[in-house]
Amino acid sequence: MKRFSLIRSIRARSETDSIDKERSKTIFVLGGGGGKGACQVGMLIALIEQGILADMVIGVSVGALNGAVYATNPTLDGLRSLENLWESLDKDTIMPKRKLGTTWRYAQRAEAVYPGEGLQNLIDTYLDVSDISDTKIPLEVLAADYSTGEEIWFGSGEPRSVLYASAAIPGVFPPLRLDNRLLVDGGIVNDTPIDRAVYQGATHIYMLLCGTPYAQLPDPKRPLEALIRSSTHTKTAHFRHQIAHLPSTVSLTVLDCPEASGIEALDFSKKSLLLRCGYERAHKILAQETQPSFSPPAPQERTSPTDITEKFSVRGPMSYLLERPKREIYQRGPTKTRLKAG
């Protein structure tokens, strides 16, 4: 089957290859995807095996959980622990079954279908730090203000609260209440925050996706499928926009997992397959030394290969990505989580 992608791996070597090693900064960005997050574990293992290590980790939703475990112990042993977590994980662990009929009643009356304790207990079990500022590699985690839609960035804070907030899918898990805010899954506002990596001074970005930008999926047959598909297209468009405005001084490698695109976010039954596919796919992409071709999806009328190539040949920093973001930021530091105006 022919596969389409906007870009598999972008390496703007014309400028980045000349950067002094002492000035380089490699940031891993891990996006959301629910049960599809198993593929990121395989990607992280492949990165380590290729000798590629992060100077900083940025995560959102399930990517925040995976990224936090990696940042705490960025070794193959640490990732084997994360692999074991995923191998033993099932849906009932974080989304316990209810009595027949009660799930629908919760969906009608409660703020969420499932309680958050299962997810929080999982975080407590597998993350061996009392504050995310104590990780070996600096970590930032994104949540969203449910009332305003603002990005809320955590550089410190109790993992049980911070990581839960980043992964609290609205309607599925209750929001986290913190400082008079309702915090939910950061993926609803920015599922691929490479702009945050640019702001943090990245010279090399590795974007770990739980899917692929151009999956060809069957037409939705039910209203819920249509809503999910619409959300997916919105996230993809946002991702393409960020890539198109990437400063020429930053190189970006996109690690995708086409096999994950047809799997639902709340499906945890394919974890072994996804872990293996993420690993094999990442090794294949990382082994590529040539500039990949730009192949837009059908229908071709939307954007031509020439249009896309022109976008990616833009040189010079894009000011709106390099400005200090006008948003609320939880600053990294030795003290407890604190909210500061961005």
Question: How much helicity do the residues have?
Answer: 25-40%
Low-pLDDT ranges? 1-19, 289-328, 331-342
Distance between the termini: 46 Å
Derived from helix and strand composition plus strand pairing, the structural class reads alpha/beta
What's the CATH first level?
Alpha Beta
Q: Give me the count of strands.
A: 11
Largest sheet: 9 strands, mixed
What is the alpha-carbon Rg in Å? 19 Å
Write a structural description.
- With 342 residues, this protein is an alpha/beta fold.
- It has a single domain (9-341), classed as Cytosolic phospholipase A2 catalytic domain (3-Layer(aba) Sandwich).
- The protein is 37% helix and 14% strand.
- It is built from 13 helices and eleven strands.
- It has helices spanning 13-16, 38-49, 62-72, 76-88, 91-94, 102-109, 117-126, 159-167, 194-199, 223-244, 271-287, 305-312, 319-322; strands spanning 9-10, 26-30, 56-60, 139-145, 151-154, 176-178, 181-185, 204-208, 251-255, 328-330, 339-341.
- Strands 1, 2, 3, 4, 5, 6, 7, 8 and 9 form a nine-stranded mixed sheet that branches. A two-stranded antiparallel ribbon has the order 10-11.
- Strand 2 (26-30), helix 2 (38-49) and strand 3 form a beta-alpha-beta unit.
- Helix 2 (38-49) runs antiparallel to helix 4 (76-88).
- It is globular, with a radius of gyration of 19 Å.
- 41% of the residues are buried.
